[in-house]
Structure formats: C-alpha cells, structure tokens
C-alpha cells in the first residue's frame, strides 16, 4: 500500500510571495549576489532573516530590477541594503565612456531605484543601508579623514560617491533611517582584491603597488558584514560610517603583511607606470594613491572588530584552501 502525504513546501510559498517565514522579516539586498553580498546574505539567513536579492538575473530568492519597480518591496521588508556596482577595477575592461557609464549607473541608478521603491512603499522598512567608498576622500599622504571630513568632489571617484550617497539619502524625506557605509578595500579569501592578487603573492611574486607609501584603507569581509548587520539592527545608527579597520596601513605595509602570512617575500613592486598603462590614469589613481581613513563613528557607537589589525586579517585570508561561501 502506498501512503500519499501532502506536504506544503514553505520555501516555495515564500518564493512565490504567498507567505513570509521569519519573525525578523525580510532583508532586500540589491547586488546581494556579489562578493560582499554573498557573505552578508549568508549571515542574515543564519540570524533568522528572510533574504531577497535584487539582481539582473532571475532565480530563486531573487527579483529583477524591473520586478522590483513593478511590484514594490516584498511583504514584511524590514531592511533594504544597496550593494550593486560594476567592478571598477576589472582588468579586462578598458576605461571607455560606455564602461564609465556602467560603473556610474550600476551604483547611482540602482541606489535611486531602491530609494524610490522604499519611499513609495505603504509600509516602510526600518532602514536603508547603502555602501559607498572611501574614494569619497581626496587621496593624500598627509591628511587624516573621519566621517566629518570634507570630500566628494576632488576626482571621478569623489563625484561618483557623492551622487551615490545622495541617491541613498533620498529615503530620509520619507522618514526612513539611512546609513551609508564608506567602505575601504574588503579583504576576504573568496573574492575582491585578495582573489586577484593571491596567486602572485603565493608564488612569491607579490609586492607593493608604486611607491607603497600610499595609504591602503582596508576592512576584513567578516567585519564589513558585521557592520551592515550592526547598522540594520541598531535604531540609533544613522548617517555615514567609515567602513575601515581601526589600524591604517600603507600599501607597502599591507603587502608585507600578506606576504608574511604566506611566508613569502614581498619584494617585487608593481610599478606605477605599468598600473597607469593597464588601467588608465583615473583608475590607476585608486591604486597608486590612497587615503588615511579612520572609523571614528563605528568606534564611538561601540562596534567591535574581529580583525582590527592587518596581520590578523592577512593570516585569515592567506589560506590556500577555503570553502567558498555558497551563493544564496
Ligand atoms: N569589494 C570591495 O573591496 C569594495 C570596496 C568599497 C566599495 N565596494 C562597493 O561595494 C559594492 C559591492 O562590492 P562587491 O565587491 O560585492 O561587488 P561585486 O561582487 O563586483 O558585485 C556586486 C553586484 O553588483 C551587480 N552588478 C555588477 N555589475 C552591474 C551592472 N553593470 N549593473 C547592475 N548591477 C551590476 C551584480 O549583481 P547581479 O549580477 O546579480 O545583477 C554583482 O553581484 C560595489 O558597489 C562596490 O563598488 C566594494
């Protein structure tokens, strides 16, 4: 005798929007399929949130940008996060007007779309947390920047960050809390810059970029993810937070720490002229120049870093074998 059991799959119901599972609600993450987004969405799920990603590609637990603009926020959305952005330092893409337009629109337009949908929602989420970059501050070997420092107009990256952040602040008129995280270079084994430079450093071919004296604002992936969750869960947090570790280092110090963690030398510099040739002047500036950025507000607000110093962060990312974070 066969026994037939009728079982309702709650996940399928959630995907179809028929039911929300989590008491904590849904976090909607624009660009949640990328390097930072994959780690963030995994942590949010672990904490008990439902997560929906806004992506250019459809799929389970995803909605496309046009679905978002047509149907608005998913039911029970408690927080929205903006992480979209075409990779500026893609070595395979030339710095053409078309590529520049992609870089700009993938950040500013996507952030504006999220802000507009939030503002139009009959039931508002508690918070919109949007990423931006330390490129907001003018590169300098002497200045020291906190969240209160002026910036946002010195060069292409500064202007891009200004437009990006203005788009995110659009929700404030609708009474929604807005947090902007100006992130430094995110260090993680499974993506971003480390993935690009791991092999040369592992083979003992790594070294500083240019003079190595330029500042290198950085943060470990676990800490940037925790900072997003800190911003989502603490109602008193609003405005700009510098998403950097409390220990500022130069590019030379970072290279030495990464090479040291791999038990390799860091003696082969990447000449600034080669970077300019490969990436063009505007993008090369992001690599051969830097900013000394301090996380004054995260520290004042009591945020705790797991990797406050470059040595511990590099030891964590210097593993040859690692388990990739599963995309959501
Ligand atoms: N990683 C860092 O070190 C760092 C530092 C400072 C700031 N940030 C900023 O943080 C954000 C996330 O960084 P990440 O390293 O996680 O980025 P990522 O992995 O390169 O990409 C994030 C997501 O952006 C979407 N995207 C890419 N190109 C796009 C385009 N042309 N139009 C629309 N969407 C596009 C993609 O989502 P779909 O393919 O699903 O559409 C992608 O998964 C970016 O805006 C980046 O600029 C990153």
From TrEMBL:
<dbReference type="InterPro" id="IPR036291">
    <property type="entry name" value="NAD(P)-bd_dom_sf"/>
</dbReference>
<dbReference type="InterPro" id="IPR001509">
    <property type="entry name" value="Epimerase_deHydtase"/>
</dbReference>
<dbReference type="InterPro" id="IPR010099">
    <property type="entry name" value="SDR39U1"/>
</dbReference>
<dbReference type="InterPro" id="IPR013549">
    <property type="entry name" value="DUF1731"/>
</dbReference>
<feature type="domain" description="NAD-dependent epimerase/dehydratase">
    <location>
        <begin position="27"/>
        <end position="237"/>
    </location>
</feature>
<dbReference type="Pfam" id="PF01370">
    <property type="entry name" value="Epimerase"/>
</dbReference>
<dbReference type="Pfam" id="PF08338">
    <property type="entry name" value="DUF1731"/>
</dbReference>
<feature type="domain" description="DUF1731">
    <location>
        <begin position="270"/>
        <end position="316"/>
    </location>
</feature>
<protein>
    <submittedName>
        <fullName>Epimerase family protein SDR39U1</fullName>
    </submittedName>
</protein>
